Automatic annotation (TrEMBL):
GO terms for biological process: isopentenyl diphosphate biosynthetic process, methylerythritol 4-phosphate pathway; terpenoid biosynthetic process; thiamine biosynthetic process. This is 1-deoxy-D-xylulose-5-phosphate synthase. Mg(2+) binds at D173, N203. Thiamine diphosphate binds at H100, S141, H142, A143, G174, A175, N203, Y314, E395. Pathway: Metabolic intermediate biosynthesis; 1-deoxy-D-xylulose 5-phosphate biosynthesis; 1-deoxy-D-xylulose 5-phosphate from D-glyceraldehyde 3-phosphate and pyruvate: step 1/1. Its EC number is 2.2.1.7. Keywords: Isoprene biosynthesis, Magnesium, Metal-binding, Thiamine biosynthesis, Thiamine pyrophosphate, Transferase. HAMAP family: DXP_synth (MF_00315). GO terms for cellular component: cytosol.
Length: 676
């Protein structure tokens, strides 16, 4: 008896289809026993239908515990089963664009048993992961890369003469809005005899409905699933109609391509040189399987267009009109309601504040790269739809388009997740900064993000920003500073400005005890002892609070420390340099990579004999773990900072002059950083 036959026997038990009680235990344990795609290949159509239903229950159950990408995975259940029946993974690589919808692939490739550890430290990654399985060829999670990976693999198999392999890339309609996808399509189409199947998973949405010209055409198609029959009926009707014979049909036939142009995406892809199959109902396993078989038989580049529903089969996801439960936090599986009460986030403060500015200033416009809800731009989009642009998953275009808006006399605000700015570095540097454009870039998810792992920690932005001449960067430490710094950013019209803050609750306000200077050069003093001259702790963003805690602990040990938040930490101001020169030791604390970040910029700005200790994240790919755990491990809590500073001070207790005279200390001879 095959595994699936056994499983089916269990499923035929009346209780087994219920997602509660003993029944749930049973189907979960059966799915746990799928060890390879062979089990799926051996299944009958009826078994596959039941398996699809079981997988959905499994996904809801497991994702409800700690959160994850539920809606996207519910939408690709049948599609993934069909893929693994037609293609021979891992010999035929199956790549999932962005990778957030690879949970079903993980189940089919024998990883169901690891789902209790989904997105936890050393557990199952929320994305494909090369270390996890030979079936995961790439560990992606930034969108629109799958077609380029696939193009390269297909070329490699071609060069090596491995003609019987097929590369498969599954790409969503959201990821298809990214420029990289089109660069790759242009190349893929040229490889006429390189077997490469693109499965276009068209659910009409990124988080929110996908926008843009292509999306509009696809949406028209989705609204008219019977278009083939319609064309057939028109043709048949015309041929039979009295007075309208073949000549008239000929004229109308010529119009057909125009009609198709309007309705069909196939012209789009076919004109590029790709074979197009579809559209196929992506929830009909048999139909998808047949289309994939045809595509595989073609032995060249083919696009199979599958129409699916995000959240399919789970009513709470389908009812979530905003995001179809794209990536919910832990929730009640029966109702879909979140388990924890929502917290007030930096993104919310930003979103509300931007609406306030927009009411007063009609030159303020906003741009999102397909993430209006998660970046806090929802209220702006609602209040000012004519000044709001969702450019698709196109961060590079977002930045250059912002430069264009600025040339046109407007002040654009581009809201992104920190990690996605990485790919728009050139646009920030050349198109915005070199051109002196007043563009405000607001980055959420800066620093450690947590469960999404190495690709999503927003720890590169300050290194990027520090290399851009004249760019101003502030990391608000709380809601009040975010409001103030956003207002200041909107007043800059001759260079780009960047604000960055982390995921999670906006922290309690941390008022300044006094302010040194004003305007761009204002420095907030957050904590000071009566006797200056000891340690100057420079806290960047929310880590200013940890610096204050560290200073309090140091005071208990007789070490005097002053804590400041320089507000506009880049470029480093002469006022900060002057202040730092009054202290024996300068310690910078930031929630970003240590190499080339704010601390490094401050160190570079100070005299070479200044004693500067740069605390931050190691320049490494940090694993998935909670933000608090990783900060503690990397030595960025108040307690850890105090311990490091105390150790440093006792080891370097001389003034720069004393060190210079003895000639034994240089900047390169700094103590080892914690957390390496
Ligand atoms: C470069 C980049 N920008 C933004 C994101 C955030 N993001 C993750 S999934 C997603 C939507 C993807 O839509 P689609 O490709 O259609 O997949 P679906 O979720 O609809 O299955 C976005 C914007 C990302 N992962 N990468
Ligand atoms: C796949 C992706 O890039 C996003 O969906 C991301 O995982 C969401 O992160 P948050 O849950 O922090 O919004
Ligand atoms: Mg989509």
């Amino acid at each position: 008896m095959s595994l699936l036959t056994k499983r089916r026997a269990v499923l035929s038990h009346p209780q087994a289809t219920s997602p509660a009680g003993n029944g749930r235990e049973r189907w979960v344990s059966q799915i746990d026993r799928i060890t390879s795609p062979a089990a799926v290949r051996a299944a009958s159509p009826e078994q596959l239908t039941e398996l699809a239903a079981d997988i959905r229950r499994f996904l809801v159950d497991k994702v409800s515990k700690r959160g994850g990408h539920l809606g996207p995975n519910l939408g690709v259940v049948e599609l993934t089963l069909a893929l693994h029946r037609v293609f021979d993974s891992p010999a035929d690589p199956i790549l999932f664009d962005t990778g957030h919808q690879s949970y079903v692939h993980k189940i089919v490739t024998g990883r169901a048993g690891d789902f209790d550890q989904l997105r936890v430290r050393s557990g199952l990654s929320g994305y494909p992961d090369r270390a996890e399985s030979e079936h995961d060829w790439v560990g992606n999670s930034h969108a629109s890369t799958s077609l380029s990976y696939a193009d390269g693999m297909a070329k490699a198999f071609d060069v090596r003469g491995e003609k019987n392999r097929t590369v498969v890339a599954v790409i969503g309609d959201g990821a298809m809005t990214g420029g990289m996808a089109w660069e790759a399509l242009n190349n893929i189409a040229a490889g006429k005899d390189r077997p490469l199947v693109i499965v276009f998973n068209d659910n009409g949405r990124s988080y929110a409905p996908t926008t843009g010209g292509m999306a509009e055409r696809l949406a028209a198609l989705r609204l008219k699933p019977g278009y083939e029959q319609m064309l057939g009926a028109v043709k048949g009707g015309l041929l039979r109609a009295p007075g309208i014979g073949r000549p008239m049909f000929g004229v109308l036939h010529a119009m057909k391509s125009a009609i198709k142009d309007f309705f069909l995406p196939q012209t789009l892809f076919q004109d590029l040189g790709l074979k197009y199959l579809g559209p196929v109902d992506g929830h009909d396993i048999g139909a998808v399987e047949r289309a994939l078989q045809r595509a595989k038989g073609f032995r060249g580049p083919v696009l199979v267009h599958c129409i699916t529903n995000k959240g399919q089969g789970y009513p709470p996801a389908l009812a979530d009109e905003a995001e179809m439960m794209h990536s919910p936090a832990a929730f009640d599986p029966d109702t879909g309601k979140p388990l924890a009460a929502g917290v007030r986030t930096f993104g919310q403060v930003f979103g509300e504040e931007l609406v306030r500015h927009a009411a007063i200033r009609d030159d303020v416009v906003a741009i999102t790269a397909a993430m209006s809800g998660p970046t806090g731009l929802g209220p702006f989009a609602e209040h000012y739809p004519d000044r709001f642009y969702d450019v698709g998953i196109a961060e590079q275009h977002a930045l250059t388009s912002a430069a264009g808006l600025s040339f046109g006399g407007l002040h654009p605000v581009v809201a992104l997740y920190s990690t996605f700015l990485n790919r728009a570095f050139d646009q920030l540097l050349m198109d915005c900064a070199l051109h002196g454009r007043g563009v405000t870039v607001v980055l959420d998810r800066a620093g450690i993000t947590g469960e999404d792992g190495p690709s999503h920690h927003g720890m590169w932005d300050m290194t990027i920003a520090a290399t851009v001449p004249a760019l101003r960067l502030a990391a608000p430490r709380d809601g009040a500073t975010l409001r103030a710094e956003l207002a200041e950013a909107l007043d800059v019209d001759d260079r780009p400005t960047l604000l960055r803050y982390p995921k999670g609750a906006v922290p309690q306000e941390l008022p300044a005890v006094r302010r040194i200077g004003s305007g761009d050069a204002a420095i907030d003093v957050l904590y000071e002892r009566e006797a200056p001259g000891g340690v100057l702790l420079i806290g960047v963003g929310v880590l200013a609070a940890a610096a204050v805690e560290a200073a309090e602990r140091l005071a208990d040990h007789g070490i005097d420390a002053t804590v400041v938040d320089p507000r506009w930490v880049l470029p480093v101001s002469p006022e900060l340099v002057e202040l730092a020169s009054e202290y024996r030791h300068v310690v910078t604390v930031e929630d970003g990579g240590r190499s080339g970040g704010v601390g490094a910029a401050i160190r570079d700005a100070l005299p070479t004999d200044a004693d500067v200790l740069v605390l931050g994240l190691p320049q490494d790919f940090l694993e998935a773990a909670s933000r608090s755990d990783l900060l503690a491990e990397k030595g960025l809590t108040g307690q850890a900072i105090a311990r490091t500073v105390a150790g440093h001070v006792s080891g370097a207790a001389r003034t720069p002059g004393e060190r210079r005279r003895s000639g034994d200390e240089s900047r390169s001879a700094r103590p080892e950083h914690p957390g390496r």
